[in-house]
Design brief:
The protein is mainly alpha-helical. The protein is built from 15 helices and four strands. The two termini are 20 Å apart.
Length: 375
């Protein structure tokens, strides 16, 4: 029998009223798309910023002073001049992340064409700053040495002139990436929580028995929960992208938003159906939380929104291709950051559409089975 759209609409309106009476969920929706997005974007940075550096200058030459002077903000704090016997105490106390040891006769060896060694000590407990900062310092030392050694001839000693152009994020600001990925992660979380919680709430309040005696079908009940809760998530996500990510953080939204909106609809339906599927295996909200947490962690950590998918084992990459999250992350990065159109992202849209159909069918089958046992 055909699904009644008017019934789906009325059941969806009931979901709005039910959500309105739940202040905890309302606060959660507001919090994750405002405070959580802003704090996640600006609270943790992957690039080096105001790293603490100490310099042991045993050469006391013009070149060593130029290298020390080149360690400037915002990447590094003004370099501190220390003695060799201060290296271990300062790094053990966590006051210095980097210590550069410039050897005696360093300038003389550079001008003579020799290759003197410069030791860089790094505190790798600050992992993000340690890896990136060491590369920054190496480049600074190399550039200053080449420039100083070639000034007499008026040319640098390298045969090429490298020109680096950074696209899409010219200043390589990590908060631009973090902000958009935070919104995506929260879409995933709320799509699971709201739809699953809506079904659990029906059970805990005893209203599911009322639905069973009404002339409604399981498909109508499930679709009503998906469109009502999905509409709340989509509106809040788009508002968060515009007001928090774009206006407050300053990240550009490069791509056509109607295309991104279509991707959100497909993704929200697939993950929302997964939330209902999880809720059919739980009786209480506590049980649902125990099922929800590992699924959310896996989807977020292995989707490419936190770390590149290339860093995980190949077999796990292949497994994750059967989930919608990696495809939505790839789609979102292409649209929001690179301004891609339908001609570029249509494979991801097709995959999301296929996965949405599969998730809806599987969830509806399980949902019908559970309701049939309750009758």
């Amino acid at each position: 029998m055909a699904i009644s759209l008017s019934t789906v609409f009325r059941l969806g309106v009931k979901e709005f009223h039910s959500l309105r009476t739940d202040p905890v969920l309302l606060f959660m929706i507001f919090f994750v798309f405002t405070v959580a997005v802003f704090s996640q974007a600006t609270g943790a940075k992957f690039e080096v910023e105001r790293g603490s550096v100490g310099v042991v200058d045993e050469d006391q030459s013009e070149l060593s002073r130029r290298i020390t002077a080149a360690l400037i903000e915002p990447y590094f704090k003004p370099a501190e001049s220390i003695r060799p016997d201060q290296i271990d105490p300062e790094m053990d106390a966590g006051r210095l992340t980097f210590v550069i040891e410039i050897p005696y006769r360093f300038e003389f060896d550079v001008l003579s064409g020799r290759k003197p060694n410069v030791q860089i000590n790094v505190d790798a407990t600050s992992m993000s700053q340690a890896g990136n900062g060491a590369v920054y310092i190496q480049n600074i030392i190399a550039q200053e040495s080449i420039s100083y050694a070639g000034r007499g001839e008026g040319v640098a000693s390298v045969p090429i002139n490298m020109v680096l152009r950074t696209r899409f994020n010219p200043n390589m600001r990590s908060e631009w990436f973090n902000a958009t990925m935070a919104v995506i992660q929260h879409i995933t979380m709320l799509s699971l929580v709201l739809t699953g919680a809506a079904l659990i709430r029906e059970r805990e309040h005893g209203t599911v028995e009322h639905l069973l005696v009404m002339p409604v079908r399981p498909a109508e009940i499930m679709l009503a929960k998906l469109w009502a809760n999905g509409l709340v998530i989509i509106v809040c996500a788009m508002a968060s992208l515009w007001f928090v990510v774009h206006k407050m953080i300053g990240a550009p939204l490069a791509g056509p938003m109607p295309i991104f909106l279509a991707g959100i609809v497909l993704y929200q339906l697939s993950v929302g159906a997964l939330g209902i599927l999880l809720a059919t295996f739980a009786v209480t909200m506590g049980q649902f939380g125990l099922l929800f947490l590992p699924v959310l962690i896996i989807l977020n950590l292995l989707s490419g929104s936190t770390t590149p998918t290339e860093t995980i084992p190949l077999w796990l990459q292949n497994v994750m291709q059967f989930t919608p999250t990696p495809h939505f992350v790839s789609f979102s990065q292409a649209v929001l950051s690179r301004g891609a159109g339908v001609d570029v992202v249509w494979p991801q849209l097709c995959i999301l559409a296929g996965m949405t159909i599969i998730c809806l069918v599987v969830s509806l089958t399980r949902f019908r089975t559970v309701l049939g046992r309750m009758q």
